[in-house]
Amino acid sequence: MTLVEISPPAFDVETHMVYATAENFTGAAIYQRAECYLHADAAALLARSIELAGELGLRLKIFDAYRPAEAQWLLWAHNPDPEFLADPRRGSPHSRGVALDVSLIDGSGRELDMGSPVDGAGPLARHGCTAIAPAAQRNRAILLGLMAAAGWDHYLNEWWHYQLYEPRRYPLLDESAAGTAMM
Fold first, then answer.
1. How far is CA 137 from CA 12, 55, 70, 110, 151, in A?
2. Which domains, and CATH codes, for the chain?
3. Cβ atoms 93, 80 nearer than 8 A
């Protein structure tokens, strides 16, 4: 299956693929290459999300998208918590190319305050958390609204995670099937 590469100028987004760095919950790089890919269906919704964000003077910053199945196993080995990670035996929407971890940036490229970091598990990461500043609650609501308007589903425990509805209708993709050479 061919995935769509998500990069400018075709997609007006900023990317910072956290699993290609040590800036993730494992403290180590998981990916060898910091590339961003999505299934064509998800890429179409992303294009709409970009358009909606632009109408508000905002842009999207992507932290993860397609995640090879091999990477999901490495993450699971580090933290086998089904509230935070999809069990790789069932498969993650990321490993199907139909999910992304995303935040908002303003016109100057500054990331908006969302009240907790991307990839941080716990109560502060949940949608609807009122223990964060009102401005961060508003920013999360804006992100949720524009992603939902574009057709994305969300995961209640992570304000940054969006996926296609019914992700299991898409096949799991390991590195060889995806051909991304990320690992």
1. 25, 20, 34, 17, 21
2. 4-178 (3.30.1380.10)
3. no
Out of 25-29, 45-49, 117-121, pick the least confident: 117-121
Give just the sign of the alpha carbon dihedral 6, 9, 11, 15. positive
**Predicted TM-score of the model (pTM):** 0.96
CB 71 within 8 A of CB 31: yes
The secondary structure of residue 1, as a DSSP letter, is -
Q: Which of 35, 83, 158, 166 is catalytic?
A: 158
Q: pLDDT by residue (tens digit) across 15-30? A: 999 999 999 999 999 9
67, 101 in Cβ contact below 8 A? no
158 in catalytic set: yes
